[in-house]
Design brief:
This protein has about 300 residues and is α+β, with helices and mostly antiparallel strands. Strands 2-3-1-4 form a four-stranded antiparallel β-sheet. A three-stranded antiparallel β-sheet has the order 6-5-7, with no helix packed on it. Strand 2 and strand 3 form a beta hairpin. The chain is elongated, with a radius of gyration of 29 Å. The relative contact order is 0.10.
């Protein structure tokens, strides 16, 4: 089975779409995609180039896992690295930055307009400046969360819309309509139509465009945090597995990496050591802790 790294997946629908696309490749007998580890296992005679192209055509990225010459010797370390939680810190920074601008935007759009909260004297009665300030703040939030738009519209182009597509369309529609209202209000002010100016002011939805992105980022961060706790537990289990085994070859004990153990090898397990791979006891006796498999707290003879 060939292992691949897959990038760009954000939900279960994404992993299902990747799996469906790769399964349709000629020569692929089975395909399994893991959203948790952003990886994919493929069995069959299909070439790596064909598999990667299928993933890219579906709107995602892919690369062959362990393509380096010494990949085999670093396989356990690579597996642990794949489980590392890199997403939560990135989303946390995005959320903090977004909330800073969203709070200022909400102050201008809701506080000043609805409750008469004080604003700098420059903005008092200057409806165009107020609208431009809201447009700028909303645009900054959209730039901070540009990943929603990149992923969403990429999926739309590949006829594979995902959750990010809905977020991008909702936020983008609010921003575009509000920008139109701002230009219409500017024209109404030039014509001296004060009633139309006040009407268009209530058509601004810049705060909605920014708030959508901020709230979805909160959800994404909580999801990534839960996912990170799961992967941390998996990494802890992987660290319990021995990295080496002591083989008996020509009457001598030789320590080798775990991936070099082959069927038929005889290995030595000393008291207190973990058993490196599945095997049959041919000599000696002891008690083994099987709690990870059976839940039994008492070592089994």
């Amino acid at each position: 089975m060939e292992q691949y790294n897959v990038t760009g997946m954000s939900c279960a629908a994404c992993s299902a779409r990747v799996e469906k696309a790769v399964s349709a490749v000629s020569g692929v007998t089975s395909c399994s995609v893991s959203l948790l580890t952003n990886s994919m296992g493929v069995e069959g005679t299909a070439s790596a180039e064909a598999v990667i192209k299928a993933v890219q055509d579906a709107g995602y990225g892919a690369s062959l896992k362990g393509a380096g010459s010494d990949a085999a010797s670093h396989a356990p370390a690579m597996d642990e690295d794949a489980l590392a939680d890199r997403e939560t810190p990135i989303l946390k920074r995005r959320l903090i930055a977004s909330l800073g601008f969203v709070l200022v935007l909400m102050y201008f759009s809701m506080g000043a307009m609805m409750w008469g909260w004080p604003v700098p004297s420059f903005f008092e009665g200057n409806h165009i400046a107020m609208g431009l300030a809201q447009l700028l703040l909303a645009a900054i939030v959209m730039v901070i969360n540009q990943k929603f738009f990149i992923s969403g519209f990429k999926g739309l182009i590949h006829r594979a819309p995902n959750m990010d597509t809905l977020v991008a369309l909702g936020s983008g529609a609010s921003f575009i309509y509000s920008t139109y209202a701002l230009f219409a209000m500017t024209k109404a002010q030039q014509l001296g139509n004060h009633e139309a100016v006040m009407s268009y002011m209530h058509e601004f939805y810049f705060e909605s465009a920014a708030m959508i992105l901020a709230l979805i980022t909160v959800g994404k961060m909580l999801e990534a945090r839960s996912k990170g706790k799961t992967t941390d537990a998996l990494r802890s289990l992987m660290k319990l597995a021995p990295k080496t085994a002591v083989l008996v070859r020509d009457g001598q004990e030789v320590t080798v990496a775990i991936d070099q153990v082959k069927k038929g090898d005889i290995f030595v397990v000393r008291p207190g050591e973990n058993i490196p791979v599945d095997g049959i006891v041919i000599e000696g006796e002891s008690a083994v802790n099987e709690s990870a498999l059976t839940g039994e707290s008492i070592p089994v003879d």
